Amino acid sequence: IPKFIIDADTGIDDALAILYGLKSDKADIVGITTGFGNIPVEQATDNTLRIVKLAGFEHLVPVSMGAARPLVRHPEFATRVHGRNGIGDVELPPSSQRPAEEPADAFIVRMAGELGGELSLVTLGRLTNVAHALRRDPGLPAKIKHVYVMGGAVRVPGNVTPVAEANIWGDPDAADLVFRSGLAVTMIGLDVTLRTRLHQHQLDALRLHCKPENREVVDFIDRSMQAYFRFYGESNGFDACAPLHDPLTMLAAVEPGIVHTETLRLSVECEGKHCLGMTVADLRHRAAVGHPVRVGVEVDAASAVEKLLAVF
Ligand code: BDR
Ligand code: CA
What we know:
globular; 12 helices; 11 strands; about 300 residues; 9-stranded mixed sheet
């Protein structure tokens, strides 16, 4: 089964993506790296350790802490979206597992070498850790099978600004470096994630039908999602539902056929006053600007949600 490192700024939807990745028998999660983003990196790391414990993998999956700030800019957080603690202010029991000694970028480089081309990355936050890994080992693109990136927006508006999606906007220089690096990238952006929504009635049904050993996990998912539903109700007018940005990215990595991609030439705006962090696709007939990236353009949202919930 395919091997992954998940890189996350563990907020509400990151947590669900991690739980899915750990529970799915189609993915082998060899480690989780953390970064700043929704919250500061220390909080993201603590959340990740608690989520790993909740899933029953305490001491079984290494968690390695990464970047506290973007490559060149100042960090900004999103507690308005994810709650003060990043996971909808749900209190999970602390873990006795400590973060790994090895920092995230070194861990990525080492695992890529050890796994001989079999390792893929799923990034659910800023691309800062991957950018640092590329700086540490410029030969990394030849050693990594694929990178599935949650981020960007091509034919739809942004979320954090009119044109930029939060993960790219939060460190555009890192995203730029990754897209140019020669790494094989699939970008799962707002074009497909906003259309893939989890509804309260699906969580109600999951509570009734989940495997007995997953009751606590499902209770956490339902409770943490309440903050996400509230935010998307206020900001997007959604009715008791929220988009599955990060879970869809994990799904796209393990379930072929859920997201349909198209190879587009992409550039990241790193200097603009109005367009900072925009993922600019060259949609002209003879595309010439940017680097080729597989971009999610269509999604089978119903089977995405079904496959996601089926592991619990
Ligand atoms: C992305 O931003 C974060 O708030 C979410 O976890 C997701 O990774 C969506 O723009
Ligand atoms: Ca995230």
